[in-house]
């Protein structure tokens, strides 16, 4: 656990990892986004046609492209210059997406009440100042606007969590540790890169959102569909423990 790590350090690490990360993404994102997150996000967002949408933490831009193909008016922001570069390269000219390099903790270049909908997909746990981020999302939404975001499940993905296995590699159960620790920790992503995540409790997330002014409409812990399991039978294990949590909020 690394209490002294700041958002600036996560930016450098994501810049270094951007090429490798992007190679794992198709037009549906990586396999976890395809199976768990995309169906949930689009279900909670509802109709996006003609809506002004902010993709807050767009990465290599797959979600922005899906939204633009659904006739949304998309602005996409990411704090990694390399990610923005890759996102622009991967975006066909016919898709009108406005890409901006910026940190979701401070998007002062964007005007108040600019968006009908903000979606932030697996980003909030990459940011040190989550309170300021939530305030920015609230500021940028029109009255009645919607904020949908996904994160690693704070109750199960914690510093030190992971599968308990037999000597033969059989998965016995999922270990959770350090749940009430709040702050930065390192997690291996890919074969070599150690990324930084910022852990908070579920209580902290919900109370902060309420204090910011949001109304919580829905929370979802995504599980694979029956159709998905036919294609990816190994994901049956995800009924044992939740990996992700998705929130839908109103301003």
Short précis:
Helix content is 31%, strand content 28%. The protein has 251 residues and is α/β, with parallel strands linked by helices.
Write a structural description.
- It contains 7 helices and 11 strands.
- The chain is an alpha/beta fold and 251 residues long.
- Strands 3-2-1-4-5-11-10 form a 7-stranded mixed sheet, with helices on both faces. Strands 6-7 form a two-stranded antiparallel sheet.
- Helix 3 links the parallel strand 1 and strand 2.
- It is globular.
- The two termini are 34 Å apart.
Keywords:
31% helix; two-stranded antiparallel ribbon; alpha/beta; 11 strands; seven-stranded mixed beta sheet
- Derived structural class: alpha/beta
Total beta-strand segments: 11
Q: Widest sheet: strand order?
A: 3-2-1-4-5-11-10
The amount of helix comes to 25-40%
Distinct helical segment count:
7
Overall pLDDT level: 93
What's the overall geometry? globular
Question: Low-confidence segments, ≥5 residues, pLDDT <50?
Answer: none
Record the SSE blueprint.
Layout: H1 7-23, H2 31-45, E1 52-56, H3 62-69, E2 73-78, H4 81-90, E3 97-101, E4 115-121, H5 130-140, E5 141-152, E6 162-165, E7 171-175, E8 183-189, E9 193-199, H6 202-212, E10 215-220, H7 226-231, E11 244-250
Parallel strand pairs: 1-2, 1-4, 2-3, 4-5
Antiparallel strand pairs: 5-11, 6-7, 8-9, 10-11
Helix pairs in contact: 1-4
């Amino acid at each position: 656990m690394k209490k002294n790590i700041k958002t600036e350090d996560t930016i450098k690490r994501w810049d270094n990892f951007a090429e490798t990360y992007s190679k794992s993404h198709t037009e549906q994102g990586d396999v976890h986004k395809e199976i768990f997150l995309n169906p949930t996000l689009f279900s909670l967002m509802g109709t996006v046609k003609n809506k002004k949408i902010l993709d807050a933490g767009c990465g290599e831009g797959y979600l922005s492209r899906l939204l633009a193909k659904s006739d949304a008016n998309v602005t996409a922001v990411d704090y990694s210059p390399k990610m923005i570069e890759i996102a622009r390269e991967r975006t066909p000219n016919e898709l009108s997406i406005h890409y901006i390099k910026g940190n979701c903790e401070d998007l002062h270049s964007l005007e108040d009440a600019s968006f009908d909908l903000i979606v932030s997909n697996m980003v909030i746990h990459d940011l040190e100042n989550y309170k300021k981020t939530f305030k920015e999302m609230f500021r940028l939404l029109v009255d009645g606007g919607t904020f949908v975001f996904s994160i690693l499940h704070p109750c199960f993905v914690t510093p030190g969590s992971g599968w308990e296995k037999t000597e033969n590699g059989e998965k016995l159960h999922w270990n959770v540790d350090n749940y009430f620790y709040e702050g930065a920790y390192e997690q291996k992503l890919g074969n070599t890169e150690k990324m930084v995540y910022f852990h908070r409790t579920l209580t902290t997330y919900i109370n902060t959102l309420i204090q910011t002014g949001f109304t919580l409409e829905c929370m979802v812990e995504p599980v694979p569909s029956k159709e998905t399991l036919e294609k990816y039978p190994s994901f049956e294990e995800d009924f044992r423990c939740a990996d992700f949590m998705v929130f839908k909020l109103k301003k």
